[in-house]
What does this fold into?
Amino acid sequence: MNTQSHSFDTILSLCPLRSGAFIVTVFGDVVLPGDGQMWIGHLIELCADLRISETLVRTSVSRLVTSGQLVGTRKGRRSFYALSPGARAEFDHAAQVIYTAPQERPWRFLFFPAGHSPDALQKLGMAALSPQLAFGPARGAVPEGALAFTAHADGARADLAAMLAHAYPLEELAQEYRAFCTLEQAIAGLPKLTPKTALQARLVLTHAWRRIALNAPRLPANLLPEGYPEPTARAAFGRSYLALTAVAEPLEADILSMDSIALDQRQRAFAERRAALSTSA
It folds into this structure.
């Protein structure tokens, strides 16, 4: 085991990685801004110190191509991969959740005549009130097959926080936020970061935050219980993401293949990402 892989032992014990899901994080965090491409050799090198073998990388990429999330091209003897057109909208939506703070929104009640899926509700940040009725912040498009009612809280607004605590598994989510803060502290303690180890650490950090953020209701901070760890965890993510990016940027520029238009798009996208994270950090 080399020094780099040994330095990630504690971090990977706190955040075990599945190859397919982690590679999705790589493309969403590194490759998507600017719609670039990545040579599979660079992807293999990034994953090698994170206990993801070349065989697992190649197998996972092949499955992502088959499922329509990645498209591959060849340049000479090298294989490059990028997000498929169909996957970009999904990734853009995920980026809005991962890199930005929750905003005050109206509330939405969703009626599902045929019943709802618990997994689908979680991804929408909605809470089930009955087999046909769900409730949560009004954001994004109304799901197919649902009837939406948008509302503003009125009357005893102080009871809204009590309603949210009843509807959502806030204590379960709080445990996930606390575990994330432990991971972030371990990442912040990594010694002698190089551009490669900084990028690897940022990817693990983003992967862990992505798993929480995409399944959390993103409730306004003023409606959370006193001392709730979500704002602290979000600030920790923003702070470490920005610090790691400052070290990792030279490597990112080297491993991505993009034309001048894509590069300009990437620079604008990352400027927006930094601004959003600086606000929450």
